[in-house]
Specification:
- It comes from Marinovum algicola.
- Pfam families: EamA.
- Keywords: Membrane, Transmembrane, Transmembrane helix.
- This protein is mainly alpha-helical.
- The protein has one domain.
- The C terminus is likely disordered.
Length: 298
């Protein structure tokens, strides 16, 4: 399968994640972020475990729970804190810094070279998200900013470590392990810090099904597949598709306005994602293609 196909498939995951804000605000009860995160992760993880019938070996348990914390438990909790304490645009812009963090984390943990073009693409993407989402009266809260930066760092660490630690199983099994671990971490926290959920309506159940089955199980399997096949910096740039999708859904579904500045921001984000794929691509060493051709002829 070509690299372009891998990029397009992986981009589906953050594009679907852009629906999270719409589904959360329109279909789920407010005020239960940790409980809803646990209900999003744990049932999806257990379902995938039942389908794959593949449990992590004991030697992998520490890594699986660390990845489940970075990619789901810690990330989702900090994401909700940032969303509650900051305007949505500010929280999303801080989250977009994840692409920049991945570049430097990959250098330290994977030995990946830092390319000027990749850094420029990540910076342009952050600027584009800011134009797309931040209004002139955006208020800044120190705790919210810390949570937003912490969430971006958590997801960045999870992305890089998911590339560094590749178990000999399918992406679906790897996703099942992490979702289950993240859900098991979130469940006792939800029971401690939040009151019981009210009776759920059909709309609530439909929203949870979408976030769990599609927004977690299916999309994270696609995401971790991309993490295994693509450069970490290239994968992280695709995450900027999420705020673009969120704005488009708000415009189409909720009738929200879209200003020329926001349109320019969307164009900048899409351009930075496209250029980020080129800048992060690992090129073969000189003469490698000719050597491969000679080997194929032989």
């Amino acid at each position: 399968m070509s690299r372009t196909t891998d990029i397009l498939i992986t981009a589906l995951a953050p594009a679907v994640w852009g629906s999270t804000y719409l589904v959360t605000t329109e279909a789920l009860p407010a005020g239960y972020p940790v409980t809803l995160a646990a209900l999003r992760a744990l049932p999806a993880g257990l379902l995938l475990l039942a389908l794959t019938r593949c449990l992590p070996p004991r030697i992998w348990l520490g890594r699986v729970f660390l990845l489940g914390s970075f990619n789901f438990a810690l990330f989702w909790v900090l994401l909700f804190v940032a969303a509650y304490r900051l305007p949505g645009g500010v929280a999303a812009t801080l989250g977009a810094l994840q692409a920049m963090m991945v570049i430097f984390m990959a250098r330290g943990w994977l030995g990946t070279a830092i390319r000027a073009g990749a850094v420029a693409a990540a910076a342009a993407g952050v600027a584009g998200v800011a134009l797309l989402l931040i209004g002139p009266g955006a208020a800044l809260d120190p705790i919210g900013i810390a949570a937003g930066l912490g969430g971006a760092a958590s997801m960045a660490a999870g992305t890089v470590l998911s590339r560094k630690w590749q178990p000999p199983v399918s992406a679906l099994s790897f996703t099942a392990w992490q979702l289950t671990a993240g859900g098991l971490i979130l469940l006792p926290l939800a029971l401690i810090v939040e009151p019981p959920l009210p009776a759920l309506t059909v709309t609530n159940l439909a929203g949870l099904a979408w976030l769990g089955l599609i927004g977690a199980a299916a999309t994270y399997a696609i995401w971790f597949r991309g993490v295994a096949r693509l450069e970490p910096g290239a994968v992280s740039m695709l995450g900027m598709m999420s705020p673009v999708t969120a704005v488009i859904l708000g415009w189409v579904w909720l009738g929200q306005s879209l200003s020329p500045v926001q349109g320019a921001g969307a164009v900048i984000v899409l351009g930075s994602v496209w250029y980020g794929q080129r800048a992060n691509r690992v090129r073969a060493a000189p003469g490698a293609d000719r050597g491969a051709a000679r080997l194929a002829r032989a």
